[in-house]
Amino acid sequence: MIWYCAMVFDKEQDVTSLCSNDDDASLFVWSKQTIAELNNKKDGNMQRMQLNAVAYLWELCHDLLLATGENVSVSPGFEAFGLRVNK
Question: Which domain holds residue 59?
Fold first, then answer.
């Protein structure tokens, strides 16, 4: 048996449930530290950066679900958001 889970949003539609900074209105918790970090980015479009962060979170979840032999990702996109690997 194979199970599928779709994760999708249309950036042209109402995405306030993903991008709202109001804890009661958002599906995600956008901490003050996270918002400050996103504000430091050169893009300047907060909603676009939040949607990118959500998409990269889903990418990370997908990568974690893949078997080691199936995972071909060598450069996930979320490093643009300051992900650092401590060695």
Answer: 43-67+74-81
In a domain, 61, yes or no: yes
Residue 52 lies in a domain: yes
Asked whether the beta carbons of 63 and 73 are under 8 A apart, the reply is yes
Please, are residues 9 and 18 in contact by the beta-carbon 8 Å criterion? yes
How many other CB atoms are found less than 10 A from the CB of residue 35? Answer: 14
* Predicted pLDDT at 71: 62
- pLDDT value at 48 more than 60: yes
Question: For residue 35, is it within any domain?
Answer: no
Residue among 84, 58, 63 nearest 73 (CA): 63
pTM to 2 decimal places: 0.68
In the chain, the number of structural domains is 1
- Is the four-CA dihedral 56, 6, 61, 64 of positive or negative sign? negative
Contact indicator for 27, 20 with CB cutoff of 8 Å: no
